[in-house]
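Archive entry: two folds, one per protein. Generate the first.
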Amino acid sequence: YLDNNLSEKAIDLFNKIQNPNDVHMLLLFNSCAQLKTKEALDLVKKISKQIPKSFYSNPHLLTSLLDALMKCGDVAHAESLFHSSKEKVLPMYGAMMKGYLDNNLSEKAIDLFNKIQNPNDVHTILLFNSCAQLKTKEALDLVKKISKRIPKSFYSNPYLLTSLLDALMKCGDVAHAESLFYSSKEKVLPIYGAMMKGINRLNICDNAELAMSQLCISF
């Protein structure tokens, strides 16, 4: 049901299970996250109070719960749950950062990123997206700082590279973005999109036409 965007049917089916386990709970929270309604949020809160405490030791379930709370707009509840959790795994940080982004709280996402000891490429993407949302000089400085620190292997991730280009463009550093774009050996379509979108935003028509011509040549 979830894979076919039929969250309400998934929830109806959950309500028919006599003794749902942690997997069923996880799928319920994912269903509510997909709906993003007040009713879904109320259900998330209700079920989260009823589940056995032992279920909270499942990091996948906790991540799903945080994601549902964030997507349904209850940032305060998600924060309380996150901070009270003794064992924070990386996906939980990702769920919180994504939630902050979805709720236009980019600075909180950045603050949380700075608390992660070994951020992976997903966290780095979310950081760049946060900086792109802010569009400030401080955000640009952070993008440059982090882009110099990350492992070279991260640059093989086209999603990360696209996110980095988007952040540079939205923060106004066209030269840096262009340099990174032209030095990239494998240019996937989203990378062209990030460049063209950034260029169009800055009304640099000639460069937009150049990017389009290169896109056509690549085919």
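Generate the second and append.
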Amino acid sequence: MTIADSAAGPYLVAMMPNVRDGSSAPPRLRLEMSALYSLPPGVGPERDDPVIAAAMRAAGFEVMHGTSAEHARRLGMRVTCGGRVDRPEQADELARRWVGDGADGGSLHVGTGHEDDAQIDRLVAAIIEAGTRHGICMCIETHRATITQDTWRTVQIAKRHPEVRFNADLSHWYTGLEMVYGDWQAKLDFLQPVFERVRFFHGRIGNSGSIQIGLTHPSAATAIGHFREMWTRGMAGFRRNAGPGDVLPFATELLQPEINYAPLHPDGRGGWTELGDRWSDALTLAGIARACWDAASPA
């Protein structure tokens, strides 16, 4: 609940909750893993589900993000979902399904990026209303080819809809908008209304030309520093607004070469192989996220 004002005085307004884990524990960062598909031979754990789940737990991951509820329960894990909303009426349908699946919350791709402000407002309002009505956090993902494909429009969404919640998938902006070109700090300050409303992260690091790079790439040190700044700001926004039982999912999302994320190079035998090690990088990203969480601690 939040307090609003009217001519008759202050009154309580229902709000969409943060992602919650069913406990009354203090707010915390929760590590999740997503989309470690098509790992090369010898990289990461074997692909048998119980082995993957055991390796994830040993590394501190609690959730396999984006899988089906049935699959998650089989692995003994909690559920966070992914989905898509192109029409306002789809938001309520999706919220009902997530609640029925026992999900803690989830992330949404919304629209195509070709909507005008009135169309965007209808989509965003429907998502906020559905999440509030059904008591589940529905985070709009910052993603190319959606309504959040550029930073300016996304900040305007946050200003027009203060109760909106975001999944910060920031390599789409860092690479797609070449954020390093220009005044970096001014861009971070401009994005503060978004950072204040981050309630989910997709963990991936890119550079100014590639949306996903291995963390041993020569450009990675600079990019990691920039992502640390953005992630810490988003985590601080969550910590200022979180209560008992709230969790902030940080889902490493290192995507496969088949969809042109993980880069390839010739293997010397007439084929192609991945340049990096996505399993190792996911573990490194988890460590970076923990450090950002500590840095975002309230003074």
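Annotation attached to the second fold: Confidence is low (pLDDT under 50) at residues 1-13. DSSP finds ten helices and twelve strands in the chain.
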